[in-house]
Design a protein that fits this description.
single chain; four-stranded antiparallel sheet; 52% helix; 17% strand
């Protein structure tokens, strides 16, 4: 049996994901009945819609499906888990930095307050 080409395999995977998201509807142009948001097919890899952000500005939002390359050194499950772990590690690092920054700000404020009190009492 001949091996199916990468382009055909990737397109099939993307089509399956978009079918999971939209169902069997032809989504070359679709308007959601609940929200009124119009979703347009941009190309085989992505869809898009226009949303209004919190600043009341219209923004173009892309919805894309990226098929990861096959890897010899890890399975698809391992690759996905490694990306999840990397994301969580970065989020934890950001939280630690934010906590350290908040503690430094509080310590600096207390130090300034202490110095102000010492000047007033001198």
């Amino acid at each position: 049996m001949a091996k199916v080409t990468k382009n055909i395999v990737d397109k099939d995977l993307r089509d399956r994901v978009f079918t999971l998201l939209w169902g069997d509807k032809d989504v070359s142009e679709m308007t959601d009945a609940t929200t009124g948001i119009q979703i347009n097919k941009i190309n085989d890899r992505q869809y898009g819609c226009i949303l209004t952000d919190l600043n009341n500005v219209h923004r173009y939002v892309r919805i894309g499906a990226i098929v990861a390359e096959e890897r010899d050194d890890m399975t698809a499950e391992e690759l996905m888990q490694s990306e999840i772990d990397a994301y969580q590690a970065k989020q934890n690092e950001k939280a630690e930095k934010a906590k350290a920054k908040a503690e430094k700000i509080a310590a600096d404020k207390a130090k300034r307050e202490q110095e102000r009190m010492e000047k007033e009492n001198a």
